[in-house]
Amino acid sequence: EAGVAQSPRYKIIEKRQSVAFWCNPISGHATLYWYQQILGQGPKLLIQFQNNGVVDDSQLPKDRFSAERLKGVDSTLKIQPAKLEDSAVYLCASSLNTGAPATEAFFGQGTRLTVV
Amino acid sequence: GNSVTQMEGPVTLSEEAFLTINCTYTATGYPSLFWYVQYPGEGLQLLLKATKADDKGSNKGFEATYRKETTSFHLEKGSVQVSDSAVYFCALSNYDKVIFGPGTSLSVIP
After folding, report:
1. Who contacts B45 (Cβ-Cβ below 8 Å, separation ≥6)?
2. A85: helix, strand or coil
3. For position B57, what pLDDT does the model report?
4. Cβ–Cβ < 8 Å for A93, A106
């Protein structure tokens, strides 16, 4: 079974530039998550999709971050304009939506963003 | 709300030492509990899980027991190896919402 695919693996941009990350979840997984992991901290949920609808985006800085999940499969996360504090690893994860409490999330390798 | 608290690191142990990483949680209802591991330069991997009270998850010599009365899910290993050096994250899942603790960095020295 193929895992969660993310690209690019690394990205360096200047502040005020824009950047986009791509994620392809595991086939059949209805739920998709984007997490931000700042160095030395645990992953923080930015946005959660179920199919192509947003379930939770309460911690997404909407003035600069946007995300979409076309056709309920692939997803892109965009930052525009980037700030220095956006430097982090952006993790995509997916899970089956069984409606049960036990949800195991499967993670991609992440995209390491450095804003200079 | 839901939250996870872990013991602060970094933790440094000698090879073959006993490991405990404490984890406590706050949640409504009956969450599932997980330990994820992140090796240097890699993504998060599920290490073990427990879905109900008194369940014990185990994998690769690691164990954790879901204790509802103390709202805890402490990670243990009897004899750590250098290859166990990584960051360990305790997490809970409550109806498709997955919340992580801050992580505990473990370094095992020969």
Report:
1. A107, B36, B37, B38, B39
2. helix
3. 96
4. yes
Residues of A whose CB is below 8 A from B45: 107
**Burial of A73 from C-beta contacts in 10 A (0-12 / 13-18 / 19+):** middle
Partners of A75 in the β-ladder: A23, A69
Residues 22..61 of A with a Cβ closer than 8 Å to B: which? 31, 33, 35, 40-45, 48, 50, 55-56
CB A82 within 8 A of CB A65: no
A91 within 8 A of A35, measured Cβ to Cβ: yes
Phi, psi torsion values for B83, nearest 5 degrees:
-70, -10
Using a CB-CB cut-off of 8 Å, the residues of chain A touching B30 are 101
Residue-wise pLDDT tens digits, A89-111: 999 999 886 666 556 789 999 99
Q: What is the pLDDT of residue B1?
A: 80
